[in-house]
């Protein structure tokens, strides 16, 4: 359920030893929300927003004064320098 | 496996829980099968330095099932939400941990427990605590409000746990943490409604 809610890094850490009944067990869970760039948040955007972004993306990488391959290499270098993780 | 309840069943669960916790607000002693009060706090290894900072009759109102603070530190200046704060012991512990630059909000469904929490808060000099009535299934806060959400022995009482967990996710800031102490059910849920409701609020 924590996973379906969008949490990452879900851990069942320990039992607490405080059990409310013979059929239950006290437990400790820890979970975190992903940092700002989360693909699931991106995918939940309305379609018109996504299509505008796609238009921008296609325009940015279109062949021009700088060819597409060079643009991709520049983008790759910039992301490595910025330490962008997937 | 998610269990769906109709509105009458949800109402009966809520009333069962309210009846129990009206009595717990006066004292939790003898109402749980595990230690409560100072014995419970010491059994769950809460920080003794922090316990010394709280009055004895505040500690006596503790009825948690675990220690959410054992899951990781709270940092100075953080905004924390305590879901199902009850008499507010964890709320006050969190308020001490985050310091004057931080803030802690406790939310609970039971007016009698909140009244006890407000009484407990007045016995301290803490100025960074807010207490309010509300439901975990519909948290009355904007998106991305809190650095940390804690909860202790509450989610097992919530009929729509999936909805409550989505709400926790919503109100957490990116990189926010959820620290949960709770009861899990071993084996199968009872199939008849009466037993389910008794199980939920017992």
Question: How would you characterize the overall build of this protein?
Answer:
The complex is a heterodimer of chains A (86) and B (202). Helices cover 44% and strands 20% of the residues of chain A. Chain A is of the alpha+beta class and 86 residues long. In chain A, strands 1-2 form a two-stranded antiparallel sheet. Helices cover 39% and strands 18% of the residues of chain B. Chain B has one domain (7-183): Vaccinia Virus protein VP39 (Rossmann fold, 3-Layer(aba) Sandwich). Chain B is of the alpha/beta class and 202 residues long.
Secondary structure: number of strands of chain A: 2
Radius of gyration of chain A: 22 Å
Count of helix runs of chain A: 4
Strand line-up across the major sheet of chain A: 1-2
Largest sheet of chain A: 2 strands, antiparallel
**Uncertain segments of chain B:** none
Alpha-carbon Rg of chain B, integer = 16 Å
Helix content of chain A: 40-55%
CATH topology of chain B: Rossmann fold
Q: In what range is the share of β-strand residues of chain B?
A: 15-25%
Strand content of chain A: 15-25%
Secondary structure elements and pairings:
The complex is a heterodimer of chains A (86) and B (202).
Chain A lengths: L1 H4 L2 E8 L8 E9 L6 H5 L3 H14 L7 H15 L4
Antiparallel strand pairs in A: 1-2
Chain B lengths: L6 H20 L10 H7 L4 H5 L3 H4 L19 E5 L5 H10 L4 E6 L2 H12 L6 E5 L12 E7 L8 H11 E14 L7 H9 L1
How would you describe this structure in keywords?
heterodimer, A: 86 residues, alpha+beta, 2 domains, 4 helices, 20% strand, B: 202 residues, alpha/beta, Rossmann fold, five-stranded parallel β-sheet, 5 strands
């Amino acid at each position: 359920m924590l996973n379906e809610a969008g949490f990452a890094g879900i851990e069942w850490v320990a039992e607490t030893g405080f059990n409310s009944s013979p059929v239950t067990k006290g437990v400790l869970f820890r979970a975190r929300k992903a940092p700002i760039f989360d693909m699931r948040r991106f995918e939940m955007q309305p379609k018109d927003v996504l299509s505008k972004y796609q238009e921008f993306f296609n325009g940015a990488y279109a062949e021009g004064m700088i060819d597409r391959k060079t643009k991709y290499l520049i983008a790759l270098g910039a992301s490595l320098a910025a330490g962008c993780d997937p | 496996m998610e269990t769906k309840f109709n509105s009458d069943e949800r109402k009966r669960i809520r009333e069962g829980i309210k009846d129990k916790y009206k009595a717990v607000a006066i004292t939790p002693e003898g109402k749980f099968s595990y230690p409560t009060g100072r014995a419970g706090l010491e059994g769950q290894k809460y920080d003794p330095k922090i316990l010394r900072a709280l009055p004895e009759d505040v500690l006596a109102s503790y009825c948690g099932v675990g220690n959410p603070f054992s899951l990781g530190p709270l940092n100075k200046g953080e905004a924390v939400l305590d879901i199902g704060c009850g008499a507010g012991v964890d709320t006050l512990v969190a308020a001490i941990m985050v310091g004057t630059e931080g803030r802690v909000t406790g939310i609970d469904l039971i007016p009698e427990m909140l009244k006890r929490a407000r009484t407990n808060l007045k016995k301290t000099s803490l100025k960074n605590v807010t207490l309010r009535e509300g439901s975990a299934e519909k948290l009355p806060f904007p998106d991305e409000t809190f650095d940390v959400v804690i909860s202790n022995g509450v989610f097992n009482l919530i009929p729509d746990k999936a909805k409550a967990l989505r709400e926790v996710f919503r109100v957490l800031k990116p990189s926010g943490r959820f620290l949960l102490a709770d009861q899990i059910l071993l084996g199968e849920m009872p199939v008849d409604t009466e037993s389910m409701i008794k199980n939920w609020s017992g």
